[in-house]
Amino acid sequence: MISGLPETGLPRGKSFAISQGYQNVLTFYVFRLYSIARMARYVASDTQTELLQGTLDLFILKTLALEPLHGYGIVQRLKQISGDTLQIRQGSLYPALYRLEKRGLLKASWKTVAGRNAKFYALTKAGERELEMEKAGWERFSAVVRLVLEAGK
Q: Is residue 11, in this structure, part of any structural domain at all?
C-alpha cells in the first residue's frame, strides 16, 4: 500500500490504498521520473521539452503506425505533431531505431527518394502489439497521476 493514493479514486482521510497493479505502474514510472532527473537524454530549452526515458520508443512506434518513414521523416513528423516542442536528436533517434528493429518491432527497407537512398522503417505486427501495450501503460500511469494530483480536493 502507498499512503496518499486512493483505491477507488475517492480520498479517505489522509492515507488510502491502491491496488497492486497500480502500485507496480506507479513504481515503474516514478523510477522513470527519477531517472530523467539524474540522466536526462534531452536538453530542454524554451522550445523543447524533456522526454522521460523510454518515451522515445513509444513516439517512434506511434509515428510509424501512421505510415512508414525514414529517420529524418520521423523527426519532422514528431516535431510537427508536437507543435515544434519535441526536438529529437539523431544521436538518440538512430540507436532507438536500431534497437526497435533488432527487437523485431520495426522492419526496414531501402528506397530511393529524390535520387538518394533512404532507409524506411515500418511497424511489424509485434510493433503494433508493443505500441498498444505501451499506450495502455501510459494511460494507467496518467490515471494514477490524476489520482495523486486530485487527492484532497
A: no
| Cα–Cα distance measured from residue 118 to residue 84, given in angstroms and rounded to the nearest whole number | 24
In tens, the pLDDT along 80-94 reads: 999 998 888 888 999
* H or E element that contains 83: none
Place of cell 511497424: 123
The helix/strand/coil state of 19 is coil
CATH of the domain at 34: 1.10.10.10
Between CA 4 and CA 15 the distance in angstroms is 5
- CA 96 → CA 27, 120, 146, distances in Å? 24, 14, 30
Domain extent for 93: 20-150
| pTM of full prediction above 0.85 | no
CA–CA dist 11, 2 (Å, integer): 13
- By three-state DSSP, how is residue 14 classified? coil
